[in-house]
Amino acid sequence: EAASTVFNYGGPLKMVGLNTTHQVVITKEFVQRVLSLGTPSAKFAAELLDFFSTTYGEQLGTYGGPLHDPCAIFAVTHPHLFDLREKRVDIELHGEFTRGMTAVDERPIVQSKKEKPNALVAYQPKSAEIFQLIYEALATAPSA
What we know:
Number of helices: 6
Shape: elongated
Radius of gyration: 18 Å
Number of strands: 4
């Protein structure tokens, strides 16, 4: 219900769905690159990234975790890192198996005023640039 209220409040909104964040996946190489910075902040970040990637990877049988929160932040601070498209987004409130799921109307033609776009939905993340920005932030972080 809360998510439905947010998507229908009438103001500007950006959404970065799991289909997008799952394209920005931590690699062992990135963790090692961060660790090689040698600072306390980088070491801490590398340990967090590695823990998350290992734990998340146990569910999928492979190393790596998607960067959900950073993608959401970058959609606001660096929108050029995504293909943002106007879409109608609704939250399923009544389905027996789909209650709470996000439904994005991908049809090219808006069917009615009720179905007009209510969010900019992020697609096609520029993963390499996202990882580079994270790396640069850690490389320039002040020492504790």
